[in-house]
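Predict fold of N-dimethylarginine dimethylaminohydrolase; 285 aa.
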Amino acid sequence: MNVSPAPAVAAPPVPAGPAVRRRRYLLCPPEHFAVEYAINPWMDPDRPVDRAAALRQWEGLASVLRSLGHRVDLLAPEPGLPDMVFTANGATVVGGRVLVARFRNRERAGESAAHRRWFTAARFRQVRTAAEVNEGEGDLLPAGPRILAATGFRTTAAAHREAERVFGRPVVSLRLTDPRYYHLDTALAVLDDSRVMYYPDAFAPETRRLLRRLYPDAILARAPDAAAFGLNAISDGRHVVLPDGARGLAEQLRAAGYVPVPVGLPELRKAGGGPKCCVLELRPE
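Predicted 3D structure, encoded as tokens:
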């Protein structure tokens, strides 16, 4: 795989202490990253993108994940797929079973085949491409015994039932209503098997009621932190990697006993992506 050279950068300081469980993540270097179209409110093709800076910022994220003790696998970037860096959207992996995404927008459709090739070559035994439109971990977030699944902008309600059949876990349907939070992972993050954080105003009233019932001790993000993509975060159960602009949310996490690990991804943010968008968790069980 050819990756454009970039100056080495030091990873942000990481608090000491072991992760709850070593994770395995799939990332894709932003070698072909660009904003060539607009499929969410954050994207503006007329706004310049610094690809070299994007690569340096992405390398910082990968370094942080490795420094926390996690394994990082790489998906080779392909020309003509500028959003391929956002691997979270390419599939959902639970118990070693892989459900490859079926993208709503034609601009990203080619990413499905690229992900399927990677999983096949990596010898995942149960790999299937979704029959219904779903955008991977963007909208399907495993949370302990259940899967939290969103609809409203990208993933269909029928895809929730398909995920339930494929993974053999109950799927809880949530409805997004604010187009700025077009994927579930921009409005909600799973912190551990029993706790989440989310931005209530991104969801329909009935969904807010459901989330309050399921997660009475959830961390509720404030509007500025949600707009800073603070909920597009990666948690190993102790450390929470989140955008460095979500300072208030970092304090809330610290008060709740988690260790916030801020990272900066301003170039990738131009496409409506944050740390979690760049990371697909490969769950063996």
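The domain at 24-281 is CATH 3.75.10.10 (L-arginine/glycine Amidinotransferase; Chain A).
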